[in-house]
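User: I'm new to structure prediction. If I give you an amino acid sequence, what do you actually give back? Let's try with this one:
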Amino acid sequence: MTTVTVSPKFQIVIPARFRKDLGIDPGEKMQVISFKNRLELLPVVPMKSRRGFLKGLKAPFERERDRV
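Assistant: Good question. You get back a string of structure tokens that encode the predicted 3D arrangement of the chain. For your 68 residues, that looks like this:
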């Protein structure tokens, strides 16, 4: 387990190992979420980069007859 220290300005440094493994670059935007008594950092990803990520997904439900 890696430990970081919160600065007087409430800042932390993400250790180099994690930045490298996760591909985090300087200036990258992150969302901070409080979940079950912990903080989680999620990268902010432009919606355009998500285009087509569900391609080939099989819908496990039947559509209503008037919606086909």
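You can read the tokens as a compact description of the fold. Here is one thing that stands out. Helices lie at 16-22.
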